[in-house]
């Protein structure tokens, strides 16, 4: 290899040992850069996982260990005990809360899809001047705080004789999930060319058949995003669940756990942490199982709206 002087004249070949030194230096820089990236990623993951790890450790701590200010909160300074987790399942109706949450979540997801898919399809496909303003108006409903609506919705629930039942939440929660789901699906449906369903209709399908057989598979990531979003929102909602249901057999996790584990000024911290961990693990598994489709659904909907 030769080098060139500023005037364009060659000054000779670079020695082999110099080339080897340069190659090793660039190799060390590359390795250092990759180590820095992976180190930053691992540090960020540990910081994000720290609250979860602290909850797991706290759930199995003895009272003397948890309430001792000299004890390290991230280690077992005394032997671990499963008594507080056992208390959660034997002395509180925690399993009833879990079942109620699953029932409400599944029903709300089904109602949300049944209402949001046709509404989003009509707004995305029908070329009408009122389509965009109506889509914006639907999304604005989601931005109204629940604290401003629960009084009027309570009157509706009482008029329908649904107070203190799971049906009260099943009826009311779609008012939260449907607007944002419609907005999300509108953006995703706009990303699907009209030629897809037109070709299906040429092949003999009706508009409904073309939508179910040709469009639905293409918008499946958006549907997954709606399912995960709706279920997560309903399982964590607190204001409506507290206002509409007051008896323990009908409560969900968001209201039942605090009611049973916070008694006056006594907090069952270990059992509270155990309930948080047990509730978070299935949701985290669901997110990771459909993570690619979930992210695709949200990003496509955000780009195309």
TrEMBL record:
Residues 98-290 form the ABC transmembrane type-1 domain. InterPro entries: BP-dep_ABC_trans_perm, MetI-like, MetI-like_sf. It comes from Actinomadura livida. It is a multi-pass membrane protein. The chain crosses the membrane at residues 31-57, 97-124, 136-160, 166-189, 210-233, 267-291. Keywords: Cell membrane, Membrane, Sugar transport, Transmembrane, Transmembrane helix, Transport. One of its GO terms (cellular component) is plasma membrane. It is found in: Cell membrane. One of its GO terms (biological process) is transmembrane transport. This is Carbohydrate ABC transporter permease. It holds the Pfam family BPD_transp_1. Coiled coil: none annotated. Belongs to the binding-protein-dependent transport system permease family.
């Amino acid at each position: 290899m030769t080098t060139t002087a500023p005037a364009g004249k060659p000054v000779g070949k670079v020695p082999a040992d110099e080339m080897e030194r340069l190659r090793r230096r660039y190799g060390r820089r590359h390795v250092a850069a990759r180590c820095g990236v992976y180190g930053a990623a691992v540090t960020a993951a540990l910081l994000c996982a720290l609250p979860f790890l602290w909850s797991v450790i706290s759930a199995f701590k003895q009272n003397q260990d948890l309430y001792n200010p000299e004890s390290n909160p991230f280690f077992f300074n005394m032997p671990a005990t499963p008594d507080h987790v056992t208390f959660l399942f034997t002395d509180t109706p925690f399993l009833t809360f879990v079942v109620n949450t699953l029932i409400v979540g599944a029903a709300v997801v089904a109602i949300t899809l049944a209402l949001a898919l046709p509404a989003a399809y009509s707004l995305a496909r029908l070329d009408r001047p009122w389509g965009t303003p109506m889509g914006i108006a639907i999304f604005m409903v989601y931005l109204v705080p629940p604290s401003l609506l629960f009084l009027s919705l309570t009157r509706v629930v009482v008029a329908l004789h649904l107070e203190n039942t799971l049906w009260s939440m099943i009826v009311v929660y779609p008012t939260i999930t449907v607007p944002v789901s419609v907005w999300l699906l509108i953006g995703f449906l706009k990303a699907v060319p009209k030629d897809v369903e037109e070709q299906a209709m040429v092949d003999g399908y009706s508009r409904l058949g073309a939508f179910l057989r040709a469009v639905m598979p293409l918008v499946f990531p958006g549907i997954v995003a709606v399912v995960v979003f709706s279920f997560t929102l309903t399982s964590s909602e607190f204001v409506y669940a507290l206002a509409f249901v007051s008896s323990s057999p009908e409560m969900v996790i968001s209201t039942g756990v605090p009611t049973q584990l916070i008694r006056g000024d006594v907090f069952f911290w270990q059992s509270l942490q155990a309930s948080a961990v047990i509730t978070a693990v299935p949701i985290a598994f669901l997110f990771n199982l459909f993570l690619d489709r979930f992210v695709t659904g949200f990003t496509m909907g955000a780009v195309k709206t």
